[in-house]
Amino acid sequence: MSNDINLITHKDDQSLIELKKLKIVRNISFVFAGVIVLFSIVIFIANNAFSTSGIKSKEESAINQIAMLKDKSAKLFVVDNRIASISKIIKERNNYSSISSLISLVPSDVKINNISFDKKGISFNLISSSLLPLDGLINKFIDKTTKKEIIKNLTINSLTINQKTGSYYLSMNADFL
Amino acid sequence: MKKSFNLDSEALKIIYKQYKGYLLPAGLVLVSLLLFFYLIIPQIAGFTDLQKQMEIENQKLAAINSNLNYLSGVDTNSLNSNFNTVNLVLPKEKDFVGIMGAVAQAAGNASVSLGDYELKVGDLAVTGTNLKGFPYLEIDLRITGDSSDLIRFMEELQKTAPISETISGGTSGSSSSLTVRFYYESLPPVSLASDTTIKPISSDNDSLLRSLLSWGNLERTVPIVAQGTVSGELNSSGPFQ
User: What is the dihedral of CA B188, B189, B193, B196, to 10 degrees?
Assistant: First the structure.
């Protein structure tokens, strides 16, 4: 049995292990630092590549150019707005073209004494020397009412005769559809 | 049984000597971790926001460029003509001269003689509005002519500037009368965001605009000086200013 103990060799082993550990820890720390540096570079490049400052400067330049055309843009805006308003008025305003088509139904041997109209309806006072054309006219108006064209009803207010002149006076009114 | 440690300066020195080689790597790892959690991760998280912002800015830029191209391509003469036309058809205020001109021109075109007329101006401070929401000036007119003359006059008036609407009318013998409303509308405040795409005039509105060019009483010029700004108001002076 040997009583000698080689303390020096044991000490070297310990320090070698320590050195190995230290080296591993150092390597790990360098890897950590390297990863962080790598990430930082990637983020820096990405931020530069996706930066909005470039777009914003282009926007500024285009806005400045548009500002020089402000009269045009203002006029376009007004024209567009005005057209919309005019279109609305034209669509909604009373269209009395129907009146002329009703008047055209009056035969030549019937004289229109007076007419009055508003957006609700129209009233006629007619004079004729014969009942026949008046009858024909009433029938045409009734036909319009039946077919729901222009007018929705017809009211005959009076039919009178002037014995002296021999003229027939017809008063009637109709409501527009 | 409790063990007590006495960390005096000697002990600390020994520990320091034993582990001083690890201090730098440990510090480096700590700093790296701190940088990772407090700098890198927030940057990565903010990257998606940046992409969204980029998308928004790109859309804005596209709209601005589109507006710029459109505005550059608009013919100035045509625009001025359209601007003049629409402002004569729908004036920004009570256009007395325009109304008188319209009545006279419609009468001339319909070959009828004008009789008396009465303008119902009313309270100048309070504008009358109808169901359409537009202020108007009402006028009672008398013309010499029968029902066919009246109809002809009305048809002419319907296509004469300023825009009007016949409210009622009547014929008695060879004299006719009618009540007409002439509409007007104040100019809207011009507020155009440069990144809002300017839409070209729609085909319906374009055809309406072209039909307006055939209206009567458009020979006048509107004394409106457009000093519009992209985000400002149109300064204009009316026919009586």
Answer: -10
